[in-house]
Amino acid sequence: MATGRAHRPATRSRGIPEATVARLPLYLRALTALSERSVPTVSSEELAAAAGVNSAKLRKDFSYLGSYGTRGVGYDVEYLVYQISRELGLTQDWPVVIVGIGNLGAALANYGGFASRGFRVAALIDADPSMAGKPVAGIPVQHTDELEAIIRNDGVSIGVIATPAGAAQQVCDRLVAAGVTSILNFAPTVLSVPDGVDVRKVDLSIELQILAFHEQRKAGEEATSGGAAPPPPAVRTRPADDGPDGEVPAVMPA
Ligand SMILES: NC(=O)c1ccc[n+]([C@@H]2O[C@H](COP(=O)([O-])OP(=O)(O)OC[C@H]3O[C@@H](n4cnc5c(N)ncnc54)[C@H](O)[C@@H]3O)[C@@H](O)[C@H]2O)c1
């Protein structure tokens, strides 16, 4: 095992703050890049910069994992990759179904990043009978009539909804009734789910609206400064722990 780490025994049951959980994928992405370059250790400052997170926050986050690094050496890259992957549940295979195989569903099915992160696309499901059997990303599309059987047979716990908004709640209800307990919703609608079911919502148009707000504010600042001086850097005021550092997550709780 590589040197250069000091860690407490993992206490898997402790509560890790949601904001820390939201930053773990950012650390993992940065660490994976280091691992691919065979970098053995990394300082908290280097890793924080690579992940776009404040280094004090990173150290605090890692303390929840029981990982403290070694003074003068830093963190063991491979061990942290393992530790964060384990914490996120990525050391096991997660079969995922995608429902609604139109433009977006097909693009998601073709995205190679899921498999490399432990998410196996178990099935593609669509209500359009003419799509049944047609391969998308090498997987034949199955009709919604088979949704319940697919979920039970494959032990699927994560469902991705990429249907039109009007169909999303009904699809969600069927997924949940069949045993799905986590939903990633791309449809622009708010889903109701029973306790114990987690929903994350992705809405790129909301992200664009937030950027539009900042663009408008920057333009206003430029106008009031008469264009003579460059505008001051935008200061984002937000609670310290409401999401990954320095960015509003594109995936948000429903
Ligand atoms: N979150 C985002 O950032 C984002 C970006 C783009 C699109 N979207 C949303 O994603 C959804 C899909 O967009 P698209 O461009 O792929 O649409 P699309 O019309 O190309 O595809 C929708 C697919 O859903 C299928 N469908 C309809 N009802 C269904 C049902 N009850 N069960 C299963 N499948 C059903 C249709 O047959 C079709 O194949 C829309 O709600 C859209 O608004 C979200």
Automatic annotation (TrEMBL):
NCBIfam families per record: PRK05472.1-3, PRK05472.2-1, PRK05472.2-2, PRK05472.2-3, PRK05472.2-4, PRK05472.2-5
Binding residues for NAD(+): 100-105
Gene: rex
Ranges where the record places region Disordered: 217-254
Keyword Nucleus in record: no
UniProt-recorded Gene Ontology molecular function terms: DNA binding; DNA-binding transcription factor activity
Name recorded for this polypeptide: Redox-sensing transcriptional repressor Rex
Cellular component aspect of the GO annotation: cytoplasm
Oligomeric and partner information: Homodimer.
